[in-house]
Amino acid sequence: xxxxxxxxxxxxxxxxxxxxxxxxxxxxxxxxxxxxxxxxxxxxxxxxxxxxxxxxxxxxxxxxxxxxxxxxxxxxxxxxxxxxxxxxxxxxxxxxxxxxxxxxxxxxxxxxxxxxxxxxxxxxxxxxxxxxxxxxxxxxxxxxxxxxxxxxxxxxxxxxxxxxxxxxxxxxxxxxxxxxxxxxxxxxxxxxxxxxxxxxxxxxxxxxxxxxxxxxxxxxxxxxxxxxxxxxxxxxxxxxxxx
Length: 243
Known about the structure:
Elements: H1 24-37, H2 41-53, H3 57-70, H4 75-87, H5 91-104, H6 109-121, H7 125-138, H8 143-155, H9 159-171, H10 178-189, H11 193-206, H12 211-242
Helix pairs in contact: 1-2, 2-3, 2-4, 3-4, 4-5, 5-6, 6-7, 6-8, 7-8, 8-9, 8-10, 10-11, 11-12
């Protein structure tokens, strides 16, 4: 399976995970050599993402500020800055940055999506819903935006709407590898154990060295077996009662 590129704005979804790889030191050295030769915005963004992956937030912030020195209005750099600030729990600065981005770049769908996700973390579900819907107006095939909106609706106990957006997100999941691991808890909440297992196994294909995913697969296999055992007497009782 070809692995889609996870864009820099995905970094906040990976918080708390061990996403450092053995190649990171080599990649950092390569980026620093390129920057020394010719500083470019994309190189600084890539370096900021690499530092953020390892949760070196201060180093990531320095790199993204270097990008913004070259272009203070660069939408991608500003959005990564907002996420870095959010990850450092500087929520007021993060919110100001998100707001500034959508004021400057009114058609930047990812900014609305990430602003909506930010409000989800603040437990402001109505605001989250507003910004996620705006993101989908601008980019209807954004699997992450549909997934986040599904999460909002499920938290609001509007399960049918949550399931609808989960199903829509599934249509476009090939373009968004983060869908697989993040959707698992939602499918479990909706008692869709087989679909949760399917998404976990897809996540494992993208991250074959992720021990946490392998552990979740084993635990879910046990849960499904237990569910099958518990359901059999009920199914037998229904058949017997019908006679």
